[in-house]
Structures are given as C-alpha cells and as structure tokens.
Design brief:
- With 928 residues, this protein is of the alpha+beta class.
- It contains 20 helices and 42 strands.
- α7 crosses α14.
- The longest helix is centred in the middle third of the chain and has 29 residues.
- The two termini are 52 Å apart.
- Keywords: Disulfide bond, Glycoprotein, Glycosidase, Hydrolase, Metal-binding, Signal, Zinc.
- This is Alpha-mannosidase.
- Belongs to the glycosyl hydrolase 38 family.
C-alpha cells in the first residue's frame, strides 16, 4: 500500500471510532479511499439494501402500496420513505436502490422538497443506484433484447433525473446466471462488477475452499478479457450473517443494547459475534475486504431499526479494533478489491443449472408457464416492430405511443415473472398489464400505418381503418373471417422489422373457399386452403367463451396460406378478393389416406419429409441439394413429478424439476454430467442436465447438425447421444417449498368446470451437414423473434392502389443489411433523439463466411432522412462510449493467446459506415 493511502486509511479508522459528530468525515473519507482498512486490518463493508421483487406473491401494485398483507407484509413505498428519512439524519449512512419500477412510482409522487433531499443524498453518494434496470431481470427465460430494453429504460430515467450512471450489477436473486449477462454488463454496458447469491451448492463449497467465490468473469469467448467483469458471489445468499438482521418485527432480531443504565447490555457479545462472523468470511475470501449484504426481501420498512443498530456496530466494532467496519456500496467495495492488486480466478461459462441441495435443481422454471413465456416473447417482437413504425411516422400529434408498453414489458422480465414462478394471481396481473399496454400500442400502430400508407402523407383525411389480430394462434381474427364482398377486398399489410428482405408464409382464418390473393404489383400469388382441424375449433370455442364471453361464434372453415415478400424495415400490401371457383389459382388441402407402408411423403421440391400416417410424427428428412438424408424418431413423452419421498421430501414445482421413478441411463459424454470449472456429483441425471434455451438448440454427430429453433423460452437437454429433449409444458400437484406456496396447476375455468391450460407453439427444425447450420440458426432465429406485424382492412382494391402507398422501405432501394447484422433497436426518444442498436449475430469462428467484419451504411439505412448528428454510446445509452472506463484486473494463470478480438473500427463520420465484429453490439444516438 502506498504511504499516502496508508495515512488516509488510518485516518478513516480513527474517524470511525469517534461519535456521531465525526461520522460525516468518516463517510467522506471512506467514499474516496481505495482501501479503507488501517494497516491491513480486515474491513467489513456493510451494504444496506432491500430486495424488492417487482411482483411475486403479490402484484407489483400490492407490493408498492402494502396491500394484501395477508400474503406478505411488504410495502415498498414505506421502505423508500423510511430510508430517505434515515439517511437524512446521518451523512455516514448509505443505501442502494435497485428496482426502478418501484423507485420511479415513488419519485413521481414526491414533493419538490423531498426531491431536493433525495438529490442531495444521491449527489453525496449516500443513496446509490445499483443495477438500475426497471426490474432485476431473469437470466434464463428472458431474451437478451428484453434484458437490454428494461435496463435502458431504468438507466435513462436515472440519467435524466440525477445525471448518474450505475457502476455495478446487482443480480442477487435470479436462479442461476448467464454468461450473456456478464458479457452485456461488462463489455457493452460498462459495469465494473456484478454481485449475486445463487450458484450451485457444490460449486459454492468448492469455491469457498479455494477462495474462489469472487472471480473475473469473461462472459464471451469471442471477446475474452475485453468482456470481463468482477463477479462477487456471496458466501450464502443476500441476507446478513446470522444474528445481524435488524428488521424491527423479525423474531430473530437481536438489537445492539449499549446503554449501561438499561438491562440486556450486550455490546461485548455483539462485537464478538461480529468479529467471529467477519473472520469466518475472511477465511474464504481473497484480500482483507469482505461484504455483508445488510438487508433481505422487502426490508427497511422501518429503516431506523437497521441503521440504529448498524451505527452502534460500526462504532463499537471500530473501538474494539480487531476489524474495521463501515457503511459501503458495491461500487466502493469493488474499488477496494481492485486496489488490492490481487490476482483472481477466471471464469468463462454460465452458472447454470442451479441447485441448492442434492435433489433440488432449479431447472423446471426454464419451462414453467409456457403460455406466459410465449406471451412475453410475442410482445417483445411486437414492441420492437412498433417502435420502428413509430420512428417511420416521425413526430406527430400521436406522440410516442409505444411508451404505453414499456412499463409492462420491463416488469415482465422480472425473475419471478417471465420465469413462471409467481403466484397465479400475480401472473394474471402481468398478463393484464401486457394486454392493456399492447392494446394502446396496437391503436397507435394502426393509426401510424394509416398515415404511412397514405399517398398524400396526411392522416386526418384517410378513411382507412386498420385492425390487428392478436388471437390468430387460436384461429380468431374478425377482420379476416368477415365475408369478403364483391366490392371490397381484404387488404393485408405486412410490416417487416428485419434489416433484410424476407419471404415468409402467413396464414389467416377465412370462411370462403373462393378467394384469390394478389400482391401489390398485381401478381397473382399462389395460395392454399387448409381446413381448420377439430382440435383448433374446440380450443377456439372454449377460450373465446372463457376469456371474451363470446358464445355465438362460428369458427372459420379454413386457413388461407400464402407467401409474403416484404422489403427490409418496410411493408407490402396483399389483396384477398372473391373469385369464381374455376378461376382460383390456389390449392385446397385434402386428407391423405394412410398408405400401406405407414408413410406420407411431403415436399414437391428438393426438400422432402416423411411422416407416419398413424401418428403424424416425422420419420425422415431428405434434401437432394445439401445431400442430407437423415432418419428421425419423434416422440411425445412426459415425466411424472416427484411429490417427495422417504429419502427426500423435495417435490417438483414451479422452480424445481424433479422427475419421479426411473430416469434415463446417462451415457458418458462431455454434453452431460459435467461442469467446466468444478467436479459435479450428479444426483438428478435428468433435471441436472437441463439448460435454458431462448433461441434454439442443436445436436451434431460426425456428419450432420440437427437444429431446432423455439418460439419462447424453454428447458432442453440431450439425455442420450443423438437425442434432443425439449420440455413443452409443466403441471405439478405439489408446491416445491421455494416460496411461491402454490403448485404449478394452470387451469381455465368455464361454467363451473376447469381444464388444464393448453400450450400451443411452433418449433422450426432443419438438418444441415456438419458445420453448415449456424447461418440458418442465426438468420431464421431473427425471423422467429421478429415475425411480420400484420394489419387488416377491407377496401376497394382499385381505390386502395390509387390513394395508398402499397409497398415501401425505410432503406434505399436494393440496400439491405448483411445477413450477419440485425437491428436490435430503432426507437424515438422523448428528447428528440433516436436510439439505434446494431448487433453482429455470429460468434467468432462460428461460420467461415459470416464470422467476419460486417459493414452497415447508415446513409442507405436511413435513405429518406439525413443524419445530422451521431454519437456512439454504451449499451444502455446513458454515457458516451468514449467515456466508459474499465478496470483492469489481474487473473490467475491467464492463458489467453493475446490476440485481440475482431472488432469494428472507428465510425467514418463522412461516409457514416459502421463496422461490427463477431458478437459486437454497437449503440448510437442519432439526430435527424
């Protein structure tokens, strides 16, 4: 330690032993010191916090207001009020605020006087924003674009109101952690550290023994050391050590009684307990700095109880002199760790799957509530497309209509929301918020499309009224089921949010078989009528009555299927008109009779698939162009849930996957029963080998790759070589004892009877020769996430063509993004700027053709507008990229070759060309 630092640290230690009169000086010194311990003394960083779930056992409103306390006594509004009062009493005290969904509600209703106090607390460092997202998002079931969006929403609020940029991630409660999170927070966001509590119990014990709980996490193998972040894993969880929880009504509360005139004086006992706990933690931690997380779920509702006791502990512990204690934050703690110049273990992979006991793998939530997971994913893609349409429209009297969805989308990424681990009434509340927000955005999109497709560029004179069909998944779409008249056609406008032209099939429910489809240029489009099956008819009838109260509905007879081609970030119009039967150019599907060999072959072109006529399951895929010829066995199976047994009472539930009975025999392989940086003792060979899947999954042998893309977050595994296992749905009879206190038994009730919830979805399957599947997975994966946004209206076809823009693109004609680049965000902000994010889709060395530098010509992307100003920022757009400062960390046994990752170069501000290397995300604020 440098002499100057030693003198400063000593001064802090002396100041901390003084009474309250000198507490402010101690706080000021500690805030600026890089190592606040005197003479190498063990320093305990007390970090006051409250973990406030944005919905879980209660709804987000109930948690904020403190209602429905029969379920849980929690009131976040009281916590924030109480904390501000307590901090204002003593400048030495500190507190960290995490979930902006709660803080922004509270802030909006505060008086100017209270706001001024909070500003002072934030500016002085007493109140620090940590993580700073709208919620503490999940890391398994959440899409990375939603991670970015909800974090950006919170960060922009903090920047706007306080001009602060959070420095630390605080993911203390998600049930396992993703390397994607570490990469996004480290390389792209600019955090110095991330702190969390939940890792596998076997991994934790090994890390305690090796003093390896704190690591340098390199979350991207593509970027290596340039993506690293200091990751602090708590020794137990995010609670204080035993005996130091000071919630006023807690049965275990043991206050520090330092008034010798009263009974129960216990200063010596409490100081000894403090020192013992600190030394025990120091024995499993590198350096002479340890962190105590002084809080728990919905703590500090009477904050003075906590702070009064911590004030006394700090005073008496520092007088004792064996260890040093101070109020701290994750940022101050990280600075102290960095100043020690210690070398740290390095980690690359996920902290998945997570288990906290022998038969307790938290892998069930990867699939829990699959319909809600799909609902969130569907709105994520819709939100992305709607923001693009809002940008295309430009500033108008409509305002920023997409803000109606930002709160609901942010809340739904919470680690007890999209994860499927909230109570049923809370999940219903999440869904309701999404539905209400989406309904408002839908109206804005319909109005915007009316304006955009109007030839004269005005909105008011147009009589065109668009509608959308969010219930197409159950074949319900009033616009398309309405009879197509002899005068008007059904006009379908398809918007493509991708940066390249695409051709996808769409299907809409219709009641007329005499229909023809025409594209915007007058070309007749081949179409097909597929009879709506009885299962779909039954589901439609049941759910329309249960949810919409529709009882007289007549289901459509057919699905009308045709291919739609749309330019990049643009739209195209298609016209469905009545025609005489003999003039139809489409096809009507017919039921194929079972053949003698029990096989039906489908596919008129080079791709042919064989299905079992008895079961309808896929048997073989053959592609004459790629040379693929692969037999496939498809099965639908189910695991019976373990309800607890005589050996272990652990049951399957919303969090936990624990199958009952005999499990498949494990085959020795590096896919399986393996953790990269610790030796696993496997007790659950099925549940312990499940992993979260957001985009897709593939399995390869020496010849082929079989890829499957998914339409929502799921859990998946490969229990045997050559096999993929994807969990579709979950229903359990028991609660798993992890807090939600309800079995996962989703039902829909109608007329006094209840049925289990039906989950329907689409999986996309492709077989490629070995090493050739990445391009399809990456590009088709974008199409799955960002489907067409469809809008419908009934208009005279000739009139429509005369007065409307049937086809257009934001980009220059014949320009599109490279196949390896996606537009992640295009969003108009309330300050008049535009937020743009571009992402390279491929990892380094993943594909010889596409894992290369890609170039995007912004002038051609925004062909109809002139970019006047461009600023590159970090991922959440709360600071310039050039202002980001990264800490350099020493690691043990660093074996990186030293080759710098392939990254895009500086912006060419004349040509406005942006380069992106593999996996790189670049974020910009634009002015037009």
């Amino acid at each position: 330690m440098a002499p100057a630092l030693a003198l400063l640290a000593a001064a802090i230690a002396v100041a901390a032993m003084a009474k309250e009169a000198s507490a402010a000086r101690a706080f000021a010194a500690a805030s600026n010191a890089t190592s606040p311990a005197a003479g190498g003394k063990l320093t305990v960083h007390l970090v006051p916090h409250s973990h406030d779930d944005v919905g879980w056992l209660k709804t987000v409103d109930q948690y904020y207001l403190g209602s429905n306390n029969s379920i849980q006594g929690a009131c976040v509004m009281n916590t924030l009020d109480s904390v501000v009062d307590a901090l204002a009493k003593d400048p030495a005290r500190k507190f960290i605020v995490v979930e902006q969904a709660f803080f922004q509600r509270w802030w909006a209703e505060k008086s100017p006087n209270i706001r001024a106090i909070v500003h002072k607390l934030v500016d002085s460092g007493q109140l620090e924003f940590i993580n700073g997202g709208w919620c503490m998002h999940d890391e398994a079931a959440v899409h990375y674009i939603d991670m970015i969006d909800q974090t950006t929403l919170g960060h922009r609020m903090i920047k706007k109101q306080f001009n602060k940029t959070p420095r630390a991630g605080w993911q203390i409660d998600p049930f396992g952690h993703s390397a994607v999170q570490a990469y996004l927070l480290g390389a792209e966001l600019g955090f110095d550290s991330v702190h969390f509590g939940r890792i596998d119990y076997q991994d934790r014990e090994k890390r305690k023994a090796d003093k390896g709980l704190e690591v340098i996490w390199r979350g991207s193998r593509t970027f290596g050391s340039t993506s690293q972040i200091f990751a602090n894993v708590f020794p137990v969880n995010y609670s204080p050590p035993n005996g130091f929880r000071f919630e006023v009504l807690d049965e275990s509360n043991m206050p520090v009684q330092d008034d010798m005139m009263l009974f129960d004086y216990n200063v010596e006992e409490r100081v000894n307990d403090f020192v013992d706990a600190a030394v025990a933690q120091a024995n499993i931690t590198r350096t002479n700095h340890i962190m105590w997380t002084m809080g728990d779920d919905f703590s500090y509702q009477y904050a003075e109880s906590w702070f009064r006791n911590m004030d006394k502990l700090i005073d008496h512990v520092n007088k004792d002199g064996r260890v040093h204690a101070l109020y701290s934050t994750p940022s101050i703690y990280t600075d102290a760790k960095h100043a020690s110049n210690e070398s740290w273990p390095v980690k690359y992979d996920d902290y998945f799957p997570y288990s906290d006991a022998k038969n307790t793998y938290w892998t069930g939530y990867y699939t829990s509530r699959p319909t809600f997971k799909r609902y969130v994913r569907e709105h994520s893609g819709f939100y992305l497309a709607a923001r693009q349409i809002e940008f295309l429209l430009g500033r108008s009297s409509l305002g920023l209509f997409t803000t109606s969805l930002e709160d609901a989308m942010g809340i739904s990424q919470h680690h007890d929301a999209v994860s499927g681990t909230a109570k049923q009434h809370t999940t219903d509340d999440y869904s309701k918020r999404l539905a209400l927000g989406a309904s408002k955005v839908e109206k804005g999109v319909n109005n915007a499309l009316t304006c955009l497709t109007s030839l004269n560029g005005t909105c008011l004179s147009s009589v065109v009224k668009f509608s959308q069909c969010p219930l197409l998944n159950i074949s319900y779409c009033p616009s398309t089921e309405e009879k197509v008249s002899e005068v008007k056609s059904l006009v379908v406008v398809a918007y493509n949010p991708l940066g390249w032209e695409r051709g996808d099939f769409i299907r809409v429910p219709v009641n007329d078989e005499n229909l023809a489809v025409e594209s915007s240029d007058g070309t007749i489009v081949a179409s097909q009528l597929v009879e709506v099956d009885n299962v779909t008819r039954s589901l439609r009838k049941f759910y329309l009555k249960a949810y919409l109260g529709i009882t007289t509905d007549k289901p459509p007879k057919y699905w009308l299927v045709f291919q739609v081609f749309v330019p990049p970030m643009g739209w195209n119009s298609y016209y469905i008109s009545r025609t005489t039967g003999h003039n139809r150019t489409g096809y009507v599907s017919t039921q194929v009779s079972p053949s003698n060999n029990d096989t039906i072959e489908v596919g008129p072109g080079p791709l042919k698939m064989s299905f079992s006529s008895a079961s309808g399951q896929l048997k073989r895929i053959f592609n004459s162009i790629s040379g693929v010829d692969l037999p496939i066995q498809q099965s639908f199976l189910w695991y019976r849930s373990n309800e607890g047994d005589t050996v272990d009472s652990q049951a399957s539930g919303a969090y936990i996957f624990r199958p009952n009975g005999t499990t498949p025999t494990s085959v020795s392989s590096s896919v399986r029963n393996y953790r990269e940086d610790w030796k696993l003792e496997m007790t659950e060979p099925v549940a312990g080998n499940y992993y979260p899947v957001n985009l897709g999954v593939y399995v390869a042998d020496g010849k082929y790759e079989l890829s499957v893309l998914v339409d929502r977050a799921v859990g998946a595994s490969s229990i045997h070589d050559g096999q993929l296992e994807i969990m579709l749905h979950r229903h359990t009879l028991r609660d798993d004892g992890k807090g939600v206190e309800e079995p996962l038994g989703e039902v829909v009730c109608l007329d006094g009877s209840c049925k289990g919830l039906t989950a329907r979805g689409t999986y996309y399957v492709k077989v490629d020769k070995l090493g050739h599947g990445a391009h399809w997975r990456r590009t088709c994966g974008q199409q799955v996430y960002s489907p067409y946004l469809l809008a419908f209206t009934h208009e005279d076809k000739t009139s429509w063509k005369s007065y409307n823009v049937a086809k257009a693109s934001m980009m220059n004609e014949k320009y599109s993004l490279p196949d390896n680049v996606a537009i992640v965000t295009l969003q108009s902000l309330d300050d008049g700027t535009t937020l743009l994010r571009l992402a390279h889709l491929f990892q380094a060395a993943e594909d010889p053709q596409y894992s290369v530098i890609a170039k995007v010509e912004l002038k051609k992307v925004f062909g109809k507008r002139t970019i006047k100003e461009l600023t590159e920022t970090n991922l959440s757009a709360n600071q310039k990229k050039s202002d980001m400062k990264k800490l350099n960390w020493r690691v043990l046994g660093d074996s990186e070759s030293g080759h710098a990752p392939l990254k895009g170069g500086p912006i060419d501000y004349q040509a406005l060309v942006v380069e992106l290397g593999p996996m790189e995300i670049r974020t910009f604020l634009l002015k037009f």
